[in-house]
Design goal:
The complex is a heterodimer. Chain A is an alpha/beta fold. Helices cover 38% and strands 20% of the residues of chain A. In chain A, the strands form three sheets. A seven-stranded mixed β-sheet of chain A has the order 3-2-4-5-7-6-12, with helices on both faces. A five-stranded mixed β-sheet of chain A has the order 9-11-10-13-14, with helices on both faces. In chain A, 55% of the residues are buried. In chain B, strands 1-2-3-5-4 form a five-stranded parallel β-sheet, sandwiched between helices. The chains are: A alpha/beta, B alpha/beta.
C-alpha cells in the first residue's frame, strides 16, 4: 500500500467527500492551519470554488449559519481552526446543534462537522492551545472523533461526513507530517471502534489524537527495557468502544491514560472512572494519568515543555505502574 | 388598514388570528383548571404581525422562532391539539414531549426548531437561507424574534453574514416592549434609540411598522419576501406592538378576560379596567373593526367564525388532556440520529 502524509490523507478525504456529495460545503478553509502543508488546500479551493466559503471572524455567526443549513438539507463542514475558538461558538454548537435532534423528538437531524486543531502547537500560549474535547464530551448529542494516523484521519473524516449527527472532528497540527499506509478510494472506519495500535502484555496505554503517537514512542522505549505496552487508540470518544478498552485492561491489569486535556475532568478522568467502575477487579495497580496539568498554557518554550505530556513522562508513569 | 387581499384570503387571515388568540386563552384557562404545564410565554396581542407575515409564505419556505412561538406555529398551519399536547408534555405532541412550549417544531410545515436562547435563532435562520440559496431554490426563511435579540452578539454576527452573502432571509423583529419596560421603549437595556439603525449600518433595508396594523405588516413583509426571492438579500422589519397586560405577570393571566369581540362594534361592552387595551391597543379588535367598517363581514359572520374556532380549541384541549404522557424510558431515545 502507498504511504502518504497525514496532511495528504486528510485533504484527499475532503476532496473525495466533496466529489461524492453536492450537499457538502466548507465554511472556513484552513483545515491544515498555518502549516507549510496548507498549500494542499489550494487545489481543493480551485475545484470547489462555489462550495468553499471564507466567513468573517464570527465563530458564533458562521457556526450557527452552518447548523441552520444542516437542519435544512446541507452537509456543512466547518473549520473553526484553532480549537480555542470553539468557545466563541458554544451557544450554537453546545446549545443548538447538540440538542436539536433530541428536543425536536427526532424530527430534525443536524449532519454537520466542526473541525478543530487542538493542543500545544508551540508558543500558542493560554488562548490558542486548548484541548476542549472533554468539555464537549460533557454535552450529549455530539459525536467526537480524534484521529491519530493518516489511515484514521481519512477513514474517520469519511465516516463523519456520512453521519446524521453533529460531529466534532478534533485534529492536531503536530500530526500533519506523520506518514503511513492509506488506501486509495473508499474504506470504512465505523465510529466506536478503538484500534490497538501496538500489542503488549504488561500495561495498557490509552490515548487519542497526538497522544497516541506519544504513547507509541514511550512503548518503543519501554520495549528496550523489557516492558511490553499495549497502545489502545480510542479513535472516537463518542461513541466510545468500551469493549476494546476493557479487554485490554483485563489482559494487562495495568493502565496509564495519556491525554492532552487538563487533568481535572479531562478525557483521562472519564476513562479512568469507566475502568474503575467496570474493570476494578482486573487492576493490579492504581490507574495512572499523564495529562496537561491544571495550569493555563504558558508562552515561554521552556515553561510549555515543562507541562507537556511527553513520552518520557509516560514511560516514568509505566515504571511506577509495573513496580 | 386592511391587507390588500381577496375576500377568501381576508377571512382566512382573520380565522388564523382568532385561532392564535383562542388557542392561548384556552391554554391559560386549562392551567387555571388545574392542568399542569409549567411556565410559558404568550403571543396574545401580536396576532396582527404573525398572521399576515406567515400567510405570505410558500410550503417550501422555512421559519425559525423563539420561546414566544405558539402563534407562529399555528400560523403555519400546525394542529392545535398536537401543539397543546407538546406544551402539556404528552406523547402525542409534535416533539413527543421532548421540546415543550419552548421548542415546538413541525418540520413538515417548515417550522424548524425554535430556540429559547435569546438570539439563538438568528444564525440558524441565516443558515436556512444560505441552504436555500446553495440549492438554487428561491425559497426564503423568516426569522421571528423579540427586541431583546438586538442585545445579543449573535444577531450582529449573523446579519453581517446575511448582508455579505446576500442571503434570502427576512428578520422580523416583534418589538413588544411597549408596556413591558418601565419608561417605554427604547428602554434601559439598549443604548440605540432606534432599532432599525442597527441593521441599516450593515446595509440591510430596515423598516419599522405598527405591528397591530395587519395591512401595514402584510405590505412590508410582502416586499421583503419579493426582495429575498429575487436574490436581492435580507431585510429587517421592526413590528411594534403593545405588550398584552396579561403577559406582564410572571405567569400569564387573563387580566383582560376572554376576548369579547363585540367590544369591536359595541363600545358599551368595553370594561373599565384595561379600557385602552380594548379601545385601541388590541390588534385583533382593531382588525375586527376594520373588516366590519369595510363591509367585508357581518357581526353574525364574525361570531359564527369565532364559535367554530373556539370549538376547535376546546377539541384541541380535550385531545391534549386525554393524551398519554410519554413512557419514562423514552427519555433515552433520540440523543443521536441513526
Amino acid at each position: 500500500m502507498r504511504e502518504i502524509s497525514y496532511a495528504e490523507a486528510k485533504v484527499e478525504a475532503l476532496r473525495e467527500i466533496m466529489e461524492a456529495d453536492e450537499r457538502v460545503c466548507l465554511i472556513g478553509s484552513y483545515f491544515l492551519g498555518l502549516s507549510p502543508r496548507r498549500v494542499l488546500m489550494n487545489q481543493l479551493r480551485e475545484q470547489f470554488s462555489a462550495r468553499i466559503f471564507d466567513p468573517p471572524i464570527s465563530e458564533m455567526g458562521f457556526c450557527g449559519l452552518a447548523v441552520g443549513a444542516a437542519m435544512t438539507g446541507m452537509r456543512p463542514i466547518v473549520d473553526i481552526a484553532t480549537a480555542s475558538f470553539v468557545f466563541n461558538a458554544f451557544p450554537q454548537i453546545v446549545n443548538e446543534a447538540a440538542n436539536v435532534h433530541y428536543m425536536t423528538g427526532g424530527q430534525v437531524p443536524v449532519p454537520i462537522i466542526f473541525h478543530l486543531l487542538h493542543g500545544l502547537r508551540g508558543g500558542g500560549a493560554a488562548q490558542h492551545s486548548h484541548s476542549p474535547q472533554a468539555m464537549l464530551w460533557n454535552t450529549p448529542g455530539l459525536e467526537i472523533a480524534l484521529p491519530a494516523s493518516p489511515y484514521d484521519v481519512k477513514g474517520l473524516l469519511k465516516t463523519a461526513a456520512r453521519s446524521a449527527n453533529p460531529t466534532i472532528f478534533v485534529d492536531h497540527a503536530r500530526l500533519f507530517e506523520v506518514k503511513g499506509p492509506v488506501p486509495e478510494g473508499e474504506y470504512d472506519i465505523p465510529f466506536g471502534q478503538a484500534d490497538v495500535k501496538r500489542s503488549g502484555s504488561d500495561v495498557t496505554l490509552v490515548a487519542t489524537s497526538l497522544m497516541v503517537q506519544v504513547a507509541l514512542r514511550a512503548a518503543a522505549d519501554l520495549a528496550a527495557k523489557g516492558i511490553e505496552a499495549e497502545v489502545v487508540d480510542l479513535r472516537t470518544i463518542v461513541p466510545l468502544d468500551k469493549a476494546t478498552l476493557l479487554a485490554s485492561v483485563a489482559k494487562t491489569g495495568r493502565v496509564v491514560i495519556v491525554d492532552e486535556c487538563h487533568r481535572s475532568c479531562g478525557v483521562a478522568a472519564e476513562i479512568s472512572a469507566i475502568i474503575a467502575e467496570e474493570a476494578f477487579h482486573c487492576l493490579k495497580a492504581p490507574i495512572r494519568r499523564v495529562t496537561t496539568p491544571d495550569v493555563p498554557i504558558p508562552a515561554s518554550p521552556l515553561l510549555e515543555k515543562h507541562i507537556e505530556p511527553t513520552a518520557e513522562k509516560v514511560a516514568a508513569a509505566v515504571q511506577e505502574a509495573v513496580k | 388598514m386592511l391587507p390588500d387581499l381577496p375576500q377568501a384570503g381576508l377571512i382566512e387571515l382573520y380565522r388564523v388570528m382568532l385561532a392564535m388568540r383562542r388557542f392561548e386563552e384556552a391554554l391559560i384557562l386549562a392551567t387555571k383548571s388545574g392542568v399542569s404545564v409549567g411556565h410559558f410565554h404568550v403571543y396574545i396581542g401580536q396576532e396582527c404581525t404573525g398572521a399576515p407575515a406567515l400567510s405570505l409564505l410558500r410550503p417550501d419556505d422555512t421559519i425559525f422562532t423563539t420561546h414566544r412561538n405558539h402563534g407562529h406555529v399555528l400560523g403555519r398551519g400546525a394542529d392545535p391539539g398536537r401543539v397543546l399536547a407538546e406544551i402539556m408534555g404528552r406523547a402525542t405532541g409534535y416533539n413527543s414531549g421532548k421540546g415543550g412550549t419552548l421548542h415546538i417544531t413541525a418540520r413538515e410545515l417548515g417550522v424548524l426548531p425554535t430556540s429559547a436562547v435569546v438570539g439563538g435563532v438568528v444564525p440558524l435562520a441565516t443558515g436556512a437561507a444560505f441552504a436555500a440559496k446553495q440549492k438554487g431554490s428561491d425559497a426564503v426563511c423568516v426569522c421571528l424574534f423579540g427586541d431583546g435579540v438586538l442585545e445579543e452578539g449573535a444577531f450582529y454576527e449573523a446579519i453581517n453574514l446575511a448582508s455579505l452573502w446576500t442571503l434570502p432571509v427576512i428578520y422580523l423583529c416583534e418589538n413588544n416592549s411597549e408596556g413591558a419596560i418601565a419608561g417605554g421603549f427604547p428602554g434601559s437595556t439598549i443604548a440605540a434609540r432606534s432599532l432599525t439603525d442597527l441593521p441599516a449600518a450593515f446595509r440591510i433595508p430596515a423598516r419599522a411598522v405598527d405591528g397591530a396594523d395587519a395591512g401595514e405588516v402584510h405590505g412590508v413583509v410582502k416586499e421583503a419576501i419579493r426582495r429575498a426571492r429575487a436574490g436581492e438579500g435580507p431585510s429587517f422589519i421592526e413590528a411594534r406592538t403593545v405588550r398584552w397586560p396579561g403577559s406582564r405577570p410572571l405567569w400569564p393571566d387573563l387580566l383582560t378576560g376572554e376576548t369579547d369581540l363585540s367590544c369591536a362594534w359595541d363600545a358599551a361592552r368595553i370594561p373599565e379596567s384595561h379600557g385602552d387595551w380594548h379601545r385601541s391597543q388590541d390588534g385583533l379588535l382593531r382588525f375586527t373593526r376594520e373588516i366590519l367598517q369595510a363591509g367585508r363581514v357581518t357581526t353574525g359572520e364574525i361570531l359564527a367564525l369565532d364559535e367554530a374556532v373556539r370549538s376547535r380549541m376546546q377539541q384541541a384541549v380535550r385531545f391534549a388532556v386525554d393524551s398519554p404522557y410519554p413512557a419514562p424510558e423514552t427519555a433515552f431515545d433520540g440523543v443521536f440520529a441513526q
